[in-house]
Design brief:
- There is one protein chain.
- This protein is an alpha+beta fold.
- It has a single domain, classed as Nuclear Transport Factor 2, Chain: A (Roll), CATH 3.10.450.50.
- The chain is rod-shaped.
- The relative contact order is 0.08.
Amino acid sequence: MTDEPGTGTPVADPPPAPAPAPADADADADAQATPDTEAEPDAQAAPDTDAAPDGGAPSRSRRFTRAKVVGALAAMLVTAITATAVLQWISAAQAEDARASLESERALRLEVSGAASAFSRALLSYDYQNLQSTRSTLAAQATGDFLTTYDAAFGGAMAQVIVKLKATSQATVRKVYLADVDDATAHAIVVVDQQVNTSEAIRSVKDSHLKISLVKEKGTWKIHDVTVLGAASEDQYNLDGDDKKKD
């Protein structure tokens, strides 16, 4: 305090001017004031960080779903491959069985065809000098009462005519048609050409048809019955120059 001049009355000193606030204080004040306005973005952003764990659950679920789908597709692929392999094996086995069946049937038909062809050729081929040889050949290929029928047709008087005319015959099998072939019986139509030479003429018979029944005995096909169905044409050239033709 100081004395007022001329009065001696003490006068109070003026209060000191406030010191200027430090710059740091202003900054702190601003920092304290800003949360009222800037805290909201932080508050809004917070759920993003908090939701991250929750957001991971759908991602893991999607990964799990994809894994199940991939596993299911892989299982389906394996099943399809296995099924395809099984079908291919079955198809191959069936094809092999069908091939074996066809081969067996083909072999059977070849046996029957061969027996019918050989018999027809032997039946219509002969030589007047050795008729017994023809009969023996036919006896080995036939069964049942065929020899009785053959002897009735070609034995006796017929054999004497063949010898008298010095006849020889040569037969050529052209075709064999098979029907009703199984493991025990069969039927065939055999088409044969025949040429007969005698001391008087040459006779040509075209397309003679023989109906033959066969049976299998002890693993061998035998001729059981024969029926001559006729020929397509017959030509005869007489050695004395008189030709004849019969259709």
